[in-house]
Predict the structure.
Amino acid sequence: MSVPAIATNDYWIARAVLQHGIAALYVIAFLSGFAQFPALLGERGLLPVPRYLRLVSWRRAPSLFHWRYSDRLLRAVTLSGAAIGILLVVGLPQLGPPWAPMLAFLLMWALYLSIVNVGQIFYAFGWESLLLEAGFFAAFLGSDAVAPPAPVVYLLRWLVFRVEFGAGMIKMRGDPCWRDFTCLYYHHETQPMPGPLSWYFHRLPKPLHRVEVAANHIAQLIVPFGLFAPQPVASVCACVVVVTQLWLVASGNFSWLNWLTILLAFSAIDDRFLGVTHASVDSGPPWWVGVVLAFSAGMVVLSYWPAKNLLSRRQLMNAPFNPFHLVNAYGAFGSITRYRDEIVIEGTDAVRLDESTSWREYEFKGKPGPLHRRPPQVAPYHLRLDWLMWFAAMSSPQRHPWFVALVVRLLQADPATLRLLRRDPFDGKPPRYVRALLYRYRFTTWRERRRSGAWWKRELVGLYLPPLALADTPLASRR
């Protein structure tokens, strides 16, 4: 028995792109956790998970780590999630019955949810919720044995709509520079992690920056409605989303946010628009149709809160409305910083400190540091410590408890922490003192760039954290 009411035979390519692409991003996310989580959040991390779990209930933050946390278990979770993702990228579960990819995606979702819900500020980014929601939705796209289910295809468009329209509205309700078209006078230079082309984007003529803002408003405030229009209008609007997201990929490093949005936009691109036809296949067995309809109904109910948020003058940005991160609110850069401050951490092995003390600088993998170093391409990988260093520079270290813990780990020459950095100036040996300075960075001009070869100029703002020795820190005993 088949139930053709939910079948759509025009989105086979879209389903393949969504399933393979989302799975690939899960692999990156799990491998990022394998490499970074223990040093940031592990048993000896900057914000240890065991301490956090004593304060938070399972109901508030569902996670298998409530049962037990260890760095070894964390690595097992990340490797297991990555292995499942690789199977989906290769396409093995998709060759079986519809429950096979469903089970694989739901397992990945549950494992990554366990990580995000104990990840604290290091996992407090909108793209974490977006990846969780996308992976959960992808679970109900089925396998090659059934036609793509239309309700899930439209729910994925609703997800793209919330990402794009939510970002557009948060901008219009936020910083006035979005309304007077001047935000991109600053953004390419002051964004959290510039990329290899950000210098060139920043140096575009100001009229082109105003065109960029206008195009952004069209892409985020008007085009998303077209995703629900009849074909080929929906496909054309999806292509606009793809192009604008590729522009963002080229201009900065935003983890997997842009790549995931590109993948999700394919939910509106049908096979006929791509010049492909597919033989008709039915909806699948009744149990599968029932599962899809139950899932769709549940997501429609959960959509009440993000829909209300989109219409609210007090719109929330990147907010989950439930601990399972399903049907969330999204948005980005409701306000733009006009200048860029950077924290530069230095150490010395001098016994006494005076004006002649020689300080050596620690280098981070992604964030600006040495003036002649070109900003690297990092995305879709996410350097979590580097991103938080951008936020920390906006306020005092007292508001960022992890920062003092970072200084302690540097004083201890902790190997796991040092692996998060690009260069340790002490080659694995502990310094006697560590301090942090605050600099104001700006991109060089065309003339300065030709003359010096530097990408950045900087001037000292002041002391961010005074020199500390290991004995001076309250965390010194936590070895």
